Structures are given as structure tokens and as C-alpha cells.
Amino acid sequence: MTATTKPPPLSANAVSFASIVPGVAAYTYIGCYQETANDTAANDVRALAGGTMNTSKSMTVADCISFCGNSKYAGLESGKECRCAPTLNPQSMKMPDSNCTALCMGDRSEVCGGLLLLTTYQRNASMDNSTSDGVDAKGVEKLLWAVMSLLTMTFIL
């Protein structure tokens, strides 16, 4: 009889079962970016600066996207932080996706950045004139204007 060895058990932070969410609603994943808050070359300005931030022990990618609303960028860091901003600091370097390894505290099957690393999402430009349901707001406005014009002409005649 030959002895067999078992592989070591996976740690609680094992990423092998977690994955990067490719996108949620109007946002698409664009990469794992380095946080620049402690980077003197970036003047200590965060990768996603000028926006808002939320911390939650139940953070998920969908929660962050929802919190960011219409911000151009959304990023998750350290499994629990969500940052929203109109711009991505050009000093923030794109890193290999494999560098972002923190599990989202609200859904351990999702990746939420890492230590000084952000899983970064960008709002799709095609959604900029859309409602949260994906309806083209300018198109609806034009349609309503046309209907109102027709109704007005009907009552005048």
C-alpha cells in the first residue's frame, strides 16, 4: 500500500473560488489599479479622488456600484471600501488582475481590490444619458415632446 498526501486546506482568504465581477449595471471592469494615496509622485492624491467613499462590512461589487450612482468610476479596496470619483488619477498604475486578491466582505465569491489596490469599474459612456433602467432619457423627452405637440394640434383643430 502506498501512502498518499492530501493537499493543504485552503485558507479563509483563498481567492481560488473568488472572481472579478466583469460588470454590474452600467459599469464595466477596467482593471486592478494601484492606490496612489501614499505615492509622492502622485502628490498623495488617491487613485479615485474628488468623489465619495463608503466602508461596509457587507460590501459587494453591486453595493459599491449602487452607492456610486452616476460617478464615472467606482473602485473597491481591501474587501470593504468603495470609492467613487469623476476621474482616475493618471499616476495610478494598472496592475495584473491577479494582484487584486481581497474578498468582498459581503460576498466572498467576489474580489474587492486588495491592500492599496482597487478593482476598478468605469461607467459606460453609452449610459450617460440613461435612467437607472437603461432607458435613454433624451429619447423619452423627445417622444413626450412629440406626443404633447400632437395632442396640442388635435385640440386646436
Automatic annotation (TrEMBL):
Pfam families noted in UniProt: WSC
Primary localization class, coarse: membrane
Coiled-coil regions, chain positions: none
Name this protein carries in UniProt: WSC domain-containing protein
Keyword field contains Iron: no
Domain WSC: 26-124
Domain of life the protein comes from: Eukaryota
UniProt entry keywords in alphabetical sequence: Glycoprotein, Membrane, Signal, Transmembrane, Transmembrane helix
Keyword Acyltransferase: no
Subcellular location: Membrane
